[in-house]
Each structure stands twice: as structure tokens, then as C-alpha cells.
Fold this sequence. Notes:
The structure is a single chain. The chain is an alpha/beta fold. It contains 15 helices and 19 strands. It has helices at 20-33, 51-65, 78-87, 120-130, 152-165, 188-194, 221-230, 257-270, 287-295, 307-317, 340-354, 358-362, 380-385, 387-400, 426-442, and strands at residues 5-6, 9-13, 41-46, 69-75, 92-96, 105-112, 148-150, 174-178, 198-202, 234-238, 245-248, 254-255, 278-282, 299-303, 321-323, 329-331, 370-376, 405-410, 416-422. The strands form four sheets. It has a seven-stranded mixed beta sheet with strand order 1-2-6-5-3-4-7, with helices on both faces. The protein is globular. The two termini are 23 Å apart.
Amino acid sequence: MGKYFGTDGFRGEANVNLTVEHAFRVGRFLGWYYGREHKAKVVIGKDTRRSGYMFEYALVAGLTASGADAYLLHVTPTPSVSYVVKREGFDCGIMITASHNPYYDNGIKVINSEGYKLESDVEQKIEDYIDGKIEEVPYARREEIGKTIDYSIGRHRYIGYLISLATRSYEGMKVGLDLANGSATAVAKGVFDALGAKTYVIHSEPDGLNINTNCGSTHIESLRQLVTEQKLDVGFAYDGDADRCLAVDNEGNLVEGDHIMYLCGKYMKEHGELANNTVVTTVMSNLGLYRALDELDIRYEKTAVGDKYVHENMLANGHAIGGENSGHIIFSKHATTGDGILTSLKVMEVMLESKKALSELARGLKIFPQRLVNVRVTDKREAQADAVVQAKVAEVAALLGDDGRILVRESGTEPLVRVMVEAKTDELCIEYTEAVVDTLQKRGYVL
């Protein structure tokens, strides 16, 4: 991770550690970098945060000042930017979002011409430019100055693409959608309506301040209530930029990313679509997933946390499905990044083709009790490297043995150390996470 760019772009609180000056300079550099040999074309999307307008205009000013043309998708999911960049010949794409974070945060994700997250060496060049470590890039003049183009058609083409992926009509299916007051409001209902579902929608009125607030994939309670009260077949919850999806089954149970990888991986193997007989996970996936995949004779690979690393593994090895328990699921045949709405369509496919309820499909995966504690610390790297902390983690790992595991890692986007324990019981999860948190506290790292 660099000074500004983490595992998921340049993220921070709007006008605190991510400012309009930062956005302007990101635009200035990208417009110049991709326009050295031709006039650059850059497409921009955003979620529904109030600060999105501010950053959108700052990026456009920087891009056009360097001679690039900026194409605006307006409010749209992150995966739609990846789709449009790759399919329609843009030099790069930019998504303005802080994903599942609160409304006052925002971020800048840069996507390369192939629809993948930007290469780390280019991110480093942007950081050096922001910090004045490389010479100023020239301003465009006269007819070389860039222009701005409304490109809503790109989002509409993405919607059409999603609809084309469905294998059956959804007629007769009752589907709940929690749109998180975010990017999914521009896409999800239209897709499900077009496919014939009877949709029940909540949190679909963004006001710039309510994105992810007690809604979406990080707050599943209201969707569970909707599904149970209305007796729906299934419910789907997205995050702020709609690149992740969690589900609620017909009995009101939460269906997380590990469940989705399990049931989709099983379905893909049965239909000869599971390339290399492998599912790619991160180290945060539940131990129960690995045991369930073992029973199905499906191999798995583990990466560092972040869909960026999952995708890098999939791309390098030709795997077809991978993701995170948080709901970032990648289907490499159809997309270059995690796509929450696509994920919900793939779950619908498994349900309809197998003629089984989601509760039945997910039953083969037994989740181990898990507890994750986010600890705000003075220095996340120093805290993790502390010998006393490491000794306590090793002690807990030894106590758990083969019946659980502990994982301590730093957040890629916040000043946090995340302590995760899986064990046979909730009581053991609490006991062992608290043991590590207490050690961090005694060592003086906890804020």
C-alpha cells in the first residue's frame, strides 16, 4: 500500500485527508499520462455521497486541463465503470466512492483500460505527482483543452448486459432489494423488473447523507424483516457502490459471501463451469467453507484480504470464481471485478435452475462461530509487529489447534487492527479475541 492508495483506491474523509486538491491533481496526472500519444478519454462514475459532486468536478477540471475528455456516467455502480472502460475503449475509468463507509468518507478508484484496478506502479506515479516529487505536467491550450460529455448511455448498456446474463425469467419470484441508498438505486430494480420479478425495494431514496446508514449489506436487519414479513423468496442487499452483495434466504437467514461461493462453486462444478476445480478465497473466509469444499472435492486458494488480490490470483491462474465473505464475488467469465448485482443474478440462476429454495442450497455449509473486533490503534503496523502481541496471537492459535483459527491483520483503508477468531463456540471466540485486544491495550496501542 502506498501513502494515499490502499487496497481499494485513495480513500479518506472528504476535505480532511482526501481533498478537492487531491482530486484535481489525480485528474491532472491521469489526463496527461494517458494523453501523451493521443487525446485521452476517461469515464467517471460516482455513488450518491454529497461530496461526490465536488470530487467529480475537481477530477473533470484536472482531466480537461491536461487535455483529456471526461465522460460522465453520473450515479452508477463501480462494476459498471469497469464494464464501460473495457467494452468501449476508454483509456481509464474513475469511480468516486468509499464503498460501505459512512457518507462523510469518499474515495477515488482508478480502473485501467482492461477494466481492472490500476497498476501499483501507476498509483505510485500519481502519489509522487501529488507530493511534488516529479515535475509539473503541462496545461493543455486552445483546442487541446478537453471537454465533458454526458455518458448516461454507458450505464444503460451495462444494465442491458446484466439483463442478458439471466438464464430464465424471474416471473413468479418475490425478491427483496436493499439498495443502501447508494449506486444500486440507479440499476438494480430496473434489472429485476425487466426479468419479471415482483420486487420489494427498501432504502432507495438517497439524499447524499444516508448512504449505508443502517441499511445495505453492512446492516442486514431491515432486509431480513422485509423478507420474513412479506414472505419473499429471497432478498439481496448491496453496499454503497454496489460491488458487493449479501443475501437473505426464504427463512430469513443471512447468506454471506462464503455461502454464495459455496453454492455457486458447487453449481458451476456440476455444470462443468468451475475452471481448474478451484474457488479463490481470502484468508478471512470461514473455516466451515473450506471443510464444505473439501467434502465436494473442490480445491481452493487463499489470498490476502481485498478483492484486488482475489482477482490477481484468478487472472494469473484462470480461475472462474472467487471472492470475500463480505460479498465481493468475482465471476471472471462475466466481469473484471466484484459486482453485487451480477452476484444476485448468479444466485437467482442457481435457485431457478436447481428448483430449490436458497435456504436448502446454503444448508450444506456449516459456519463456524466467528468474532471480528476492529481495534483503532496509534500505529497499525507497529502494533502487529510487537513481539508481545505476536506471542499472544501464537498462544491463542495453539489453544485453538485444528478446531479454529485466529487472524490478526491491519485494515487497508483505516487505522485499525482487525482481530478475528473462529472457534467451536461463541464463548471461545469472545475469550480469545479479548485476550489479544487486552494485550494491544496494555502495550499502549489502543486509541
